[in-house]
Amino acid sequence: MGIYGDFYNFAHPLYYFRFQEVVIAVVLSVSSAMLGAFGAVRRVVQLPPAEAMRSEAPKLYRPGIFDRAEIQKHVPVSVRIIIRNLERRPWKAALSVMMIASAVAILIAGRYTYDAVERMTEVEFTEKHREDLTLLFNDSMPVSVASTVGSYKGVLEHEYYRDEPVTLHSRHRSRRQTVRGLASGGGLQRLIDSNGRRHALPPEGLLMTTELARILSVVPGDTVEVEFLLGSQHRRSVAVAGTLDEILGLSAYMDIKSLHRLAGDGGAVNGAFLRIDTSRARALYSEFKAMPGVGGIMMLKALKKSFDDLIAESMLTSTLILTIFACVLAFAVIYNGARISLSERARELSSLRVLGLTKKEISVILLGEQAVLTLFAIPPGFLAGIGLSVLLALSLSSELYRLPLVFNSYNFLFSFIVVVSVSVVSGFAIRRRLIRLDLIEVLKTRE
């Protein structure tokens, strides 16, 4: 709430308690618990009392793939026992793999949004915008203002743009939009798509984002009506010269000279992109601030730093929350699975100890199953995380922004380390119980 308050400048962040949300959470939790216990309870109530009072009959087993004579020579006994136990309970093993994979997927999908935002930041602040300062004029200025701005000491490069408010019409569809006129597509503001490719600005016609083209239902080669909302407010037909898959917003671009001709007013500019000598930044900022007609100044580096600080804070908080959830889920699955196995196989493991196996060897047998399940869960967890990320990209993308599908290898490594670390901690907790087994008590015959 604090992070959102800083970002959106909420006057009074409030939390309203909603009873129906608590009811939904409780119903879902209880239903899941009852569903999990239903199978065991059903088997118990269906068992006749006379049958239940009998001693448990020995189970019938058949040789597994590693029980063949030619394989037994090369596979240790402990490994054969681990594989045999997994083969005997495939559904239990599959469910454990699925739950551990879910923990991995939570970490991957949770950190995907920050990979996407980082990519969006790189495109917008590094590849697309290369200026140091952006001057915003109060009103449209004549093209001759270029000589005035360019004469300031410390201005290394200057480029001007025109933002013209229009309504774009295509058959029964229309959209109020700003058409930006640029001097070129490769100057201080470049035309970069979501894949980092540069696009040239066509000498004639409109270049619009793919989302805007979809809204207007047009393709390159079609014609749209451009209705100017200022000045004479006339309408002109303009061809769609191409589309551009930008990450942020809805945009339409034209060559600035073509836009001047289309507007029919001799030319005007609304702002300027400047590349400056950084040693003169403070002095230039003061001079431009006092310049008549300048309504605002945007410093790209300061804007990027503020954005990075906010993202870093929110990323730290969200990563901590998601990591805790994933650790709890993974620990619950791995630890409970090992506890259940220890409870069911205490007599078997104690018998192996009496027959000569060391504590280390029986620990390998018990904990090796959980290690195998964890390792088998990581690849499907990666795939599930990628799938969830794709769903997030589709559901969160809007007219304001489109989340790019980018994945950082660090996030996969982070997820791997978290799950493996939880597995190791669970193993140590179970091993303490295992080495404390009272062999005499466990091996007693129970009537």
What are its keywords?
6-stranded mixed β-barrel, elongated, two-stranded antiparallel sheet
Sheet with the most strands: spatial strand order = 2-3-9-6-8-7
Number of helices: 14
How would you spell out the order of helices and strands? HHHHHHEHEEEEEHEEEHEHEHHHH
**Percentage of residues in DSSP E strands:** 15-25%
Overall strand count: 11
**N-C termini distance:** 59 Å
Q: Which stretches are low in confidence, meaning pLDDT under 50 for 5 or more residues running?
A: none
- What number of structural domains do the residues give? 3
Structure class: alpha+beta
Q: Main beta sheet: strand number and arrangement?
A: 6 strands, mixed, barrel
Q: Work out the helicity level.
A: 55-70%
Report Rg.
33 Å
- Average per-residue pLDDT, rounded, comes to 81
Overall 3D shape: elongated
Question: How would you describe this protein?
Answer:
This protein is α+β, with helices and mostly antiparallel strands and 447 residues long. The protein folds into three domains: 54 residues, no CATH class; 174 residues, no CATH class; 122 residues, no CATH class. Helices cover 56% and strands 17% of the residues. It has 14 helices and eleven strands. A six-stranded mixed β-barrel has the order 2-3-9-6-8-7. A two-stranded antiparallel ribbon has the order 4-5. β7 and β8 form a beta hairpin. α6 packs across α12, α11 packs antiparallel against α12 and α12 packs antiparallel against α13. The protein is elongated. It starts with a helix and ends with a helix.
